């Protein structure tokens, strides 16, 4: 692996108004001297835009932050960004997210996750034109959903992943395949990260913990899928950001193979908590923390508000990350407990929505 000094570098973060993108940008500004961040985001209304505005407002205080509103599926825009800012590190977090939404609106996934990603790969490729040093590392978000209905747990990056159960998963797997090809053909150092159920303050409202909280506050029923027999590897946002930052600073090394052609400088890692939690236990901890933070009254009747229902199309019964490769190569393992993370979320929720 090759170490990259992030100080004074220009970093392009796509999806910068998103949950992971905004937290990553903030962490880089706080910890890396002289870093410049170019952030792009299309600010879609897939979920409450107020949250995206809130995240961008937090970033606006950093003088080295440049925000561009636009989509990565706009090739001319991406090409002009690369020409003007010449980013050395590219972190692609822009994507249409969500498994269930991919069943209703497949076009959004093709546009952002496939065409948009291709535009970034092309821009990285051409960053080396005319002898330029170009992009030193492309880091991009994949997803635990690529494991589909794999029976073997924990999920390892050595497992075969060609049985996606949603278009979202298929689009993420296609990102990994496309990157491998570009990495091999054009010697682009690239690392894919398979994220496992990321949660925390100012997260995505379409995620269970956030959606449940909204419904319980509105006195609505929450549905617990697979009759509560789902397990999820919940990963706290700070752990994800720490992992991404470490990965950014170490790129797969460029090497020449026996055939005289580049060995693709390409790697994939899981980032998860390696500690899957049962959905019913998760809901139990969530309700305790919501009461503790004063989001819900202490006499709230949870049993009257929860309904156990069958599995949804596109969902999987368990997600569980094998993170041994991440530990080996970066000396890092996510470790925030579910209670700790949900406590932070509940306190933020009260402040954002109720104060």
Automatic annotation (TrEMBL):
InterPro entries xref list: NAD(P)-bd_dom, NAD(P)-bd_dom_sf
Gene3D superfamilies for the chain: NAD(P)-binding Rossmann-like Domain (3.40.50.720), UDP-galactose 4-epimerase, domain 1 (3.90.25.10)
UniProt entry keywords in alphabetical sequence: NAD
This protein's record includes keyword Disulfide bond: no
Residue span, NAD(P)-binding domain: 12-344
Signal sequence segment: none
Name recorded for this polypeptide: Nucleoside-diphosphate-sugar epimerase
Organism: Granulicatella balaenopterae
Native organism taxonomy: Bacteria, Bacillati, Bacillota, Bacilli, Lactobacillales
């Amino acid at each position: 692996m090759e170490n990259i000094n992030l100080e004074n570098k220009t970093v392009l973060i796509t999806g910068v108004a998103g949950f992971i993108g905004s937290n990553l940008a903030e962490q880089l500004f706080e910890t890396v001297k002289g870093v410049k961040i170019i952030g792009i985001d299309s600010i879609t209304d897939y979920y409450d835009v107020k949250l995206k505005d809130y995240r961008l407002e937090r970033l606006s205080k950093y003088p080295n932050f440049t925000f561009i509103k636009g989509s990565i599926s706009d090739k001319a825009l991406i090409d002009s960004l690369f020409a003007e800012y010449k980013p050395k590190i590219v972190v692609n977090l822009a994507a249409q997210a969500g498994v269930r939404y991919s069943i209703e609106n497949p076009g959004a996934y093709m546009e952002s996750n496939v065409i948009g990603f291709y535009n970034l790969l092309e821009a990285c490729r051409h960053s080396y034109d005319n002898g330029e040093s170009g992009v030193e590392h492309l880091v991009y978000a994949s997803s635990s959903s690529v494991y589909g209905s794999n029976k073997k747990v924990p999920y390892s990056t050595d497992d075969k992943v060609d049985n996606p159960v949603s278009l979202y998963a298929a689009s993420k797997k296609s990102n990994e395949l496309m990157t491998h090809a570009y990495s091999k053909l054009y010697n682009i150092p690239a690392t894919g990260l398979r994220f496992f159920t990321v949660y925390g303050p100012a997260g995505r409202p379409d995620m269970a913990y956030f959606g449940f909280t909204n419904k319980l506050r509105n006195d609505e029923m929450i549905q617990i899928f697979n009759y509560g027999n789902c397990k999820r590897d919940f990963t706290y946002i700070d752990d994800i950001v720490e992992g991404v930052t470490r990965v950014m600073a170490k790129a797969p090394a460029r090497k020449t193979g026996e055939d005289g052609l580049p060995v693709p400088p390409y790697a994939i890692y899981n980032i998860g908590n390696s500690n899957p939690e049962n959905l019913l236990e998760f809901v139990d901890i969530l309700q305790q923390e919501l009461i503790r933070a004063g989001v819900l009254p202490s006499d709230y009747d949870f049993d009257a508000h929860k309904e156990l229902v069958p599995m949804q199309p596109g969902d999987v019964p368990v997600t569980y990350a094998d993170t041994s490769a991440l530990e080996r190569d970066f000396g890092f393992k996510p470790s925030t407990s579910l209670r700790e993370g949900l406590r932070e979320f509940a306190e933020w929720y009260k402040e954002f929505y109720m104060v």
